[in-house]
Structure formats: C-alpha cells, structure tokens
Sequence to fold (387 residues):
Amino acid sequence: MTETKATSAYTKDNPFWGQVTENRLLSGPGSGKETRHIVVSLADSGLRYKAGDSLGVYPSHRPQDVDAILGQVGASGEEPVALPKAAGTVAFAEALRSKLELSKPTRRILETLEAKASDPAEKASLARLLAPESKEALAAWLGERHYIDLLAEFPSARLRPQELVDHMRRLVPRLYSIASSWRAHPLEAQLTVAAVRYRTNGRDRVGVCSTHLSDRVPVWEGRVPVFVARSPFGPPADGARDAVMVGPGTGIAPFRAFVEERAALGATGRNWLFFGDQRRASDFLYEEDWARWLADGSLTRMSTAFSRDQPQKIYVQDRMRESAADLWAWIRAGAHFYVCGDASRMAKDVDQALHEVVAGQGGMSPAEAIDYVKLMKKDKRYQRDVY
Fold:
C-alpha cells in the first residue's frame, strides 16, 4: 500500500488553521449521547494523512469559564503572565482561554492556598485536606474540582495571576482518529466527536475540545488549529489481506477510514466490522455508510451489538464469541485484527474474547493461545488504538 507522506510545513508546533465545513449530529432522538460528525478543511495546507492517523486539535475554553476565574482572582485579563517552558508573556485571559488546563488541580496549589489563606476556617479546612492520613480522600476531593472551585471555596487566599498560572498545566492538543480516507477526501479530515458534558461539585462541566468543536466553532466561519498525528495503526499493507475491525462507539472512526481507504485502493481483502453502542435506533453511527459499503462489497460482513435493545446486555465481545468459528477461520487465514475505543473495559474484554476464540477454535491450551496472540502482535496482525 502506498504511503501518503506529509509534505506540509504545518506541524504540531506550527498548526494549520482549518475551516470547519460540517457539524452534523450523528446520534438520534432518545440517545444518551451526543455524537457529531465534524469536517475540517485542509485545503491549501499540503497536509496528508493515512487511514489510522489522527488529527490533533488545539481547543479553547468556554468564555464563561475564563470569566469566572478572572472574576474570582479580581483580574482584568490584560495582566502579562509567563507560561511554563515558554519565552515571553501573554495576556492572562488569553492564557486561560487557549494555553492552560483549567481542570485537574493538584495538591501543590492547596499548599499554596493554605499558606496564603487569611480566614482561619479556610486554613483549617485546607490543613485537614493536606494531612497525611487524608491522601485518598484528597484525591477524590480534587477529582471533583477544577481550579475555579478552589478559588471560590478559599477566597481569602488571594492569588495573583502569575501565581495561579504557575500551578497550571499547559493545554495540550486532543487527538481524534480521522474517520475518512485521504484518497477519497484529499482536502479534508472527517472526525467522529462525542461531546462530553457532565456535572461535578454542583457545576456543569464540559470536555474542552469536544464542545469547542461541537458548540463554539461556527460552520464555514470558524477555524481551528490542527495538525496530523502519525500512527502505526493502519489497515494491512497487503491489500489482499483480510481485516477484522472492532470499534464500539466513537471507536468506529478509524474503521470508517479503513473501509473507505481499501475501497479507494481496490484492495481485494475482505473487511469484517464489529460495532456496538447502546441502541440501534439512536446510536447506529454511520448506518447509511455501512449499508452502502455492504451493498457494493467494500464491507464484507458487519456484526452489531446494541446493549440496551434487549433485557440482557450484548456487547461486541459477545458477538465475537457467537461467531467464533468464522472469526477463527479469518484469523487462521491471515486476517489482521484491530481494536479501537475504550481501554478501561472494552479493549480488555475484546482481548479476552480473542484469546478464548483462538484457544477454543484452534484447539489450543490457554498458554498456547497467549503465545499465538503474542505472535499476532509481533507480526503487526493485532493492533489496538485505545484510550
């Protein structure tokens, strides 16, 4: 398979300001999620990507989150501040807007607040949180809070803008698996974005980048700084090889690119997709695309698992076990096996199911199955993009 190498001057350190040309809701009425199809134009950038690569996006925070911190600190926002590991200064408001993480405060800022607090009750509360025996409780307490919470809860500990900045981490780009093939769409990158919205400590929170793309970048009028993040994750280099892809939820994104890429290249290998989500009626992401590719043969087989459409929850790993004989036949014939999505549970469950299929259908002991799967990994036939 021919590589699409980048010839662009745009990089992580010099991102391209791409125009958002589409923002379409993928999830339907009744869904417990908000999943969107976002298209970013790469026209005039020279950027290229391959199936399996990600688009790095530099986000900005909601204006109300920035204003809340400015108000609590008593700052105008024009104050110059120096950022970690950066030369020169920027305005405090700009630092808060697009340069710094406003979440995930650490123990260190509580130590500073305790030293500066003038209210005895606040000082005592901070001391209790910082006590050695409160280590686990402190971690849970901090996990519910952002920097604004600390500033609001301990107002007597007045911090200057630079003092606050010195405790904050740099805002890093977020990586989204590209859901399109460059060969089919050379002037754009398509993304599958789940807008993150939740509530902790009595405050509404949002995922900074997912809601930046979903809410705060107007279609055709807004631009975002982006770059291509290379990944070893990708479809088989040999177009005659089969591919088995497991991608529940937004983990489907790179496999949409895989199928589109292999179709554009005329690859003769078969494609089998396992997709899972909560409800077929509202969460079947890209259903029309899969139907079209099944009809024209680009997608050979699709196994779906909608966990809440029946009393007993069914997941992609359950579908793998149900199709164990066919799955083993594909693997034994040299198919590549891919997983994308949640690392905490799904990827582990899929890995366990794969080992069970190999052992059960291949007539192997558990130890032999482990060695077989290790060899698949070594040969790059088992690849995972999990997060």
